[in-house]
Amino acid sequence: MIEQDTYWRRDLLKFGERLEKRYRQRKWSARTLYNIEKQVFLSFYIIRKLIESGKADPGVSGFNCAIMKYPIREGAQPSTDPKTFGLTYELFRGSKTALNLKELCNQFIHSFIFSPFTPFKREMFGIYFVSDSHSKTGLYYIRLIKVIEIILSAGRNRLINLNLHKKADGTFRVISH
Question: What distance in Å separates the CA atoms of residue 149 and residue 43, rounded to the nearest whole number?
Fold first, then answer.
């Protein structure tokens, strides 16, 4: 049970700010990917604990998140290797789906697959993920801006809206509305 939520919220704000910097990151290593997974895992664990202890604003705890779901190919076995996602999942047959915030937390906390989407090893745009129990039916994708928005909303205990802006130099910046 969380009695004093201030410390937990501070961590969420810190994690959200760190994830926002991934839009400008150019070098990727195994350590970087570990840090991203750790920050996302801890963030969604904290969010779930805030919800379960009644410390989350109803607007935040009742949030439904629109994400993409890609069905598994018939006869395919789930794999954690991003290089095989195209062979395992129907990446061109995705459909929009929604998960409530607690379901989303559980998908990240129990993730069997967690793979940041960094095209050409440049900016990070999103995360492919799915829990072990759901990996046999499909793969989820969420945009990084949405992950940051959820984490910062829980950290501030109010829903916020973020947008992504591409600057003249080609880098991205997160803007709050």
Answer: 12
DSSP 101-129: HHHHHHHHHTEEEEEEE-GGGSS--EEEE
Which single residue is written with the structure tokens 């995705």? 94
- The torsion defined by the Cα of 71, 76, 81 and 84, in degrees rounded to 10, comes to -80
Distance set, CA 160 to CA 2, 106, 147, 153 (Å)? 23, 22, 12, 5
Q: What is the average pLDDT across 29-35?
A: 91
| Inside any domain, residue 1 | no
Residue 138: pLDDT band (50, 70, 90) is very high
- Report the SS3 class of residue 68: strand
Which residues form the domain of 121? 6-176
